[in-house]
Amino acid sequence: MDREKKLNIVLVEPQIPQNTGNIARTCAATGARLHLVGPMGFQIDDKKLKRAGLDYWHLLDITYYDSLEDFFKKNQGQFYYFTTKGQNRYSDIAYPEDAYIVFGREDAGLPEELLFQHPDRCVRLPMIPGARSLNLSNTVAIAVYEVLRQWDFEALKTQGELTRFSWENASFPEGDEALEITGAEWEKPGKSRGNLPENT
């Protein structure tokens, strides 16, 4: 039986507890391992940290390190550095199993010495000219789901269930009965046009 792939999320010197809490929740929900590299800008029992990921904290696979040097001594693998200074698009990389995706502190990013030594592993999320960066927790979520998409969401639940109804009893329209979504309006044959329902 093939071994399950594991994604590793590495936060180097995170400074904002809410970001780390949100990232911890993403890791818990996707089965990714979380590596926290100090020194951090908050205590791990910070209320803001726990509040952001409280319901999922017991699901976390989390490891702490004193420094970046400590982290590299204890981990081996393929490392990919997410940085606004990168020359490669994050979506152009084929991420191997057990990949480590590494993120720097919110106010300074990753050390440039580290980036300079690994130009082919420095990746960037495309943005418009003049935009400084995305929020760290948003960046991590985008990166995590790109890697998991490439892995075909292995071991993850990909279908949800309704609370008061069953999808098995739903009538899915086909052919001429299908809704035609165009822009901000919707149209069904024989029906008048109107605004697209809010809860779609």
Briefly say what this structure is.
The chain has five helices and ten strands. With 200 residues, the chain is α/β, with parallel strands linked by helices. The strands form two sheets. Strands 3-2-1-6-4-7-5 form a seven-stranded parallel sheet.
CATH superfamily: SPOUT methyltransferase, trefoil knot domain
Query: Low-confidence parts, pLDDT < 50 over ≥5 residues?
Result: 186-200
Please tally the β strands and state the result: 10
CATH names the topology as Alpha/beta knot
The CATH class is identified as Alpha Beta
Helical amount: 10-25%
Topology:
Blueprint: E1 8-12, H1 17-30, E2 33-37, H2 47-53, E3 61-65, H3 68-74, E4 79-82, E5 88-89, E6 100-103, H4 112-117, E7 122-124, H5 136-150, E8 180-182, E9 185-187, E10 194-195
Helix pairs in contact: 1-2, 1-5
Structure description:
The protein has about 200 residues and is of the alpha/beta class. It has a single domain, classed as 3-Layer(aba) Sandwich (Alpha/beta knot). Helices cover about 25% and strands about 20% of the residues. The strands form 2 sheets. It has a 7-stranded parallel beta sheet with strand order 3-2-1-6-4-7-5. A 3-stranded antiparallel beta sheet has the order 8-9-10, with no helix packed on it. The longest helix is centred in the C-terminal third of the chain and has 15 residues. The two termini are about 40 Å apart. The C terminus is likely disordered.
